[in-house]
Prior knowledge:
Elements: H1 2-15, H2 18-45, E1 49-50, H3 54-58, H4 61-74, H5 83-92, H6 94-121, E2 128-129, H7 135-143, H8 146-150, H9 166-194, H10 197-215, H11 219-226, H12 252-275
Helix pairs in contact: 1-6, 2-4, 2-6, 4-10, 5-6, 6-9, 6-12, 9-10, 9-12
Amino acid sequence: MKLLQYIWKNSYLKICNSKMGIFTVLILVTCWSYQQPLRRFMDAVDYPVNWCVFPFLISNMIFAILFLFGIIYIHSDVPFLQHMNLYQMMRTGKTRWAIGQIGGIFLRSVCAALITVFASLLPLVTDIEWTNEWGKLLRTAAMTDAESIYGFQYSFYYEIFSAYTPLELLGISILITVLVCTFFGLWMFFWCLYSNRILAVALSVGIAVLIFFVENSFPQFRYLAARLAPSVCLEVARAKTPNLGYFWYPSIEYVLFALILSGTVLSLLILWKVRHMEFHWENEDI
């Protein structure tokens, strides 16, 4: 119970800070801009849109990269060696302190994902169809040339409509987004402990932009490349849509297994390093 209380208090500090505030503002502004073409389409046809738009928005390559840059930014307080953490470690011990930081990374990732879901809905909130059916507007947008006429910033994929209900797709998309964000936080924490923060940020940025190279690789090799790029996992709305005849997005089961396994391995390596290292504390705000 004390460990859970510490994780919660530690998460509060990671969520209620200036970096998270800046992330929220940037996501709100970005989502508002991305949703304006869809807003114009809704006004033109005078029909509400289904509430499940986040999976399609996060499946846009440019938005996904911008989102991951924001995740790297909010996780850039790793390796949590500010002086305030010195007193936490003295009270809790190294192992509990590390578990608290890992738990904080996870809960901060949950918060970032939910903020983005809310931001994707905010520009459309006055005309949303609150049902668990995809509705006429999204089907029309996916089957017609409305995307090019109205200049949509992201695409709707018709094939996914028959595979999942809106609630199922949103749930899967949020879960995968949280796991991807957690992976980035643990990845940065790991490299900060074993090397330095500059390398951690550089490698994280490299992983984030891998999505660009995967999408522009040869279709027959894209499936293999996609299995090795965590950033591609965000594009779950494209899972049932082939590209030039190839289904390149890995199965949902593989994506969940790979993200959970990699997060577990990184967590274990972080715990081992924390127990055997000497800390050099910094005079720096969170």
